[in-house]
Amino acid sequence: MDPHSYSNPGEVRVRHISLDVDVRFEARVLEGSATLSFDAPQDDTLVLDTRGLVIHAAEGASADGAWHPANFELGAEDGILGAPLWVHLAAGDRRVRIAYTTSPGATALQWLAPAQTAGKQHPFLYTQSQAIHARSWMPAQDTPAVRVTYDARIRTPLPLVAVMSAEMRHGAGEHHFHMPQPVPTYLIALAVGDLAFAPLGARSGVYAERLMLARAAHEFADTEAMIAAVERLYGPYRWGRYDLLVLPPSFPFGGMENPRLTFVTPTMIAGDRSLVSLVAHELAHSWSGNLVTNATWEDFWLNEGFTVYLERRILEEVYGADRARMEACLGRRELERELGRLPPPDTVLHLDLKGRDPDDGCTLVPYEKGFLLLKRLEAIHGRTRFDAFLRSYFEAFVFQSVTTNEFVSYLSKHLASDGICWEEWLTAPGLPADAPGAPSEGLSQVEEQAAAWLDGRLPLAEIPASSWTVHEWLHFLRSMPQPLPPGRMQELDGAFFLTRAGNAEVLHQWLLMAVRSGYQPALAALEPFLISVGRRKFVRPLYEELVRTPEGRDLAAAIYARAREGYHPIAQATVDAILKVPATGC
Ligand code: BES
Ligand code: ZN
Question: 59, 219, 282, 311: which one is catalytic?
Fold first, then answer.
């Protein structure tokens, strides 16, 4: 059923995972055991997903019985799926214990040297399990269709602290975790570093390296208001605490919705809370994604499209409708650009990922096209009815996984089946004719100002840029023709110092434009940016833009030679693919 897992949950279903692991920074491995508990099996073989794991031993036991050795075989490694691990069960077995070591190249793990952290004194480790990387740090039924509770005992060198997406109890060099709510394995997460904690509210707080802590706490001050907003709209927060962990800049994503402990990039800490839609997004996953989960990665839009819709409802509640409209408008424009670049099969909502890496499905399509589908449903049924429907959907499928077809039939039964051409929305490429627009008055004005400056009707000094937030800036820059002649780049830079922009989103957009127009003063800022930041959303477009010209390709190769070792394996895989010299055949 899930094309990205070897596991056999139909015959044996794992219910609980118990990890007992040493974090060995010198060898860059995790070493220990995973004990998996399961229901009475219908079959005598438990099939697990692994990737690059060295399996030392397997044992079986009945519910309270003694351990006995179990036979096991590890299959061949597939480039995408990893290797199946077959564990042969004895009659009555309800648990297996597997002793293992991860490989130093484990795709979920990034091991950072002290120099790559803010404090520069201690190493750092973190995991990124979504989509199918959990199998590179524990043997598991690594499919979002299976949920487990878990506990863990993690031993770390002093004075490092381990944190996980679970209830935590810290001791000196040994940290204990317990996750009472069942979660799919892609939501199991661990980070180890010289971390400190600051509370935000009664049930929320932030972990970060000490140097980052005060800035982070300031940036996240609206977190409690956001939690309260989603609860009003879509029902209670079911996970106890909501904490955030600020990672080093190599973190390959903007955010990751690990339950109870969202992981975030430090590049969203802008000083002015302008990028906190990311917190709204990861928090929203506590309903769409973590409570109700896509059953396979082909149904990924159920996680992300719903989450973008919830994210913008939170923004509207906390910051007002204009802010939400601006973000939707920017999203719609970026989606149109993406639809123009992607091969048509990659622009459908319900993806076919058989034989492909699920990370390939991570484009803007599930996010923004999914959002537009929900906006369309909201327009058809009205907000009141649609909100009531969403509440009932989260309630009906709480702690379960859902396929696209199950969602559509639930909606047809509980709301209405008419008004939407499902075939077109789910399986046709591009945007359906009834996709709602995303107008924003504020951004239309910015667009007019950009046009007026371009045809010489408006001097830069008369543009009200001092009152702009990141949204206006991004829209202004994206309204420029590409490439913009270097002279005009120079004018913008002279007036607004964009090469020194402190906001990572604005700087990234500016650097993209600099690559396109060959604007040298900003190109000097490219290397430090690409070496310090490993966030895939920033890194990928810059390398893609660079390789379009021979000089750009040389520059990209030179920068990547220095930057690669600082990237997470997931980002390395992305950039490796971009820089691979295509076979010419002669
Ligand atoms: N769950 C995703 C990140 C993800 C997706 C990791 C697919 C691995 C595979 C997370 O919620 C997310 O969507 N992050 C976005 C930020 C968001 C504000 C759009 C990101 O990282 O850019
Ligand atoms: Zn998301």
Answer: 282
What DSSP assignment string belongs to 156-221?
--TT-EEEESSEEEE-SSEEEEEEEEEEEGGG--EEEESEEEEEEETTEEEEEEHHHHHHHHHHTT
Write the pLDDT tens digit of every residue in 239-265.
Answer: 999 999 999 999 999 999 999 999 999
Return the best residue to mutate from 251, 256, 371 for the ligand 1 pocket (most ligand atoms within 8 A of CB). Answer: 256
Domain 14-167+179-193: give its CATH code: 2.60.40.1730
Scanning the structure block, which residue is given the tokens 């190493």? 123
Domain assignments of the chain as residue spans, ordered by start: 14-167+179-193, 291-439, 442-579
160-197 pLDDT, tens digit each: 999 999 999 999 999 999 999 999 999 999 999 999 99
The binding-site residues of ligand 1, defined as CB within 6 angstroms of any ligand atom, are 130-131, 253-257, 278, 281-282, 285, 304, 362, 367, 537
Query: In this structure, which topology does domain 291-439 adopt according to CATH?
Result: Neutral Protease; domain 2 (1.10.390)
When pLDDT is cut at 50, 70 and 90, the band that residue 537 belongs to is very high
Bridge partners for 459 per DSSP:
none
Residue 64, pLDDT above cutoff 90: no
152 three-state secondary structure: strand
Cβ 29 vs Cβ 50: under 8 Å: no
The pTM for the full model equals 0.98
Is 234 annotated in the active site?
Answer: no
